[in-house]
Amino acid sequence: MSAESIVRRAVCPGSFDPVTNGHLDIISRAADLYDEIVVAVLVNKSKSSLFTVEERISLLTEVTQSYGNVRVDYFHGLLVEYCRARQIPVIVKGLRAVSDFDYELQMAQMNRGLAGVDTLFMPTNPEYSFLASSLVKEIATYGGDVSSLLPELVHKRLLERLEEQTRARRADSGQLR
Q: Which residues does the annotation say bind ATP (predicted)?
């Protein structure tokens, strides 16, 4: 097989609940380095999520549609098994701080040992170094402006979901007006 026919593939895994501009920064930079990027949404039934897996896939598909080499999928179980089954040799992870590195290095070494899958650590753009989906959700829940941290579509859906939850809580407590 010639070098021209080898497709360089990598996966960007995460929960993406919701996808942030920090996630998109890593995805876009990875898309510049690889022929194909698979954005893989983690299915974790033990963790309560604001958006369903299907909603997260839909949002990611929409906000990454401008990249011709990015596709969105989902996985559960071991990421390296997902990679092995799809012949993806590289995992791309964004690092915000040294504390991220400590945990991710252990995971990277385990993944290399288990399945020969390498991990590319990409430092987060300083503009997004503080950004985490959980923090965005918390700020938005209390009425803070997170519009600059999310793609416009995701921001709109986040506000709609939070309003749905507020209405449901009011209805449950008999406060519906």
A: 15-16, 23, 94-96, 104, 128-134
Domain residue spans in the chain?
7-130
Amino acid at position 115, single letter = A
Q: At residue 176, does pLDDT exceed 80?
A: no
What DSSP element (H or E) covers 124?
none
49 belongs to an annotated ligand binding site: no
Q: Check residue 125 and report its DSSP letter.
A: P
When the candidates are 3.40.50.300, 3.40.50.10320, 3.40.50.620, 3.30.70.100, the CATH number that belongs to 7-130 is 3.40.50.620
Who wins on pLDDT, 100 or 107?
A: 107
Average pLDDT for 25-32: 97
| 23 is an active site residue | yes
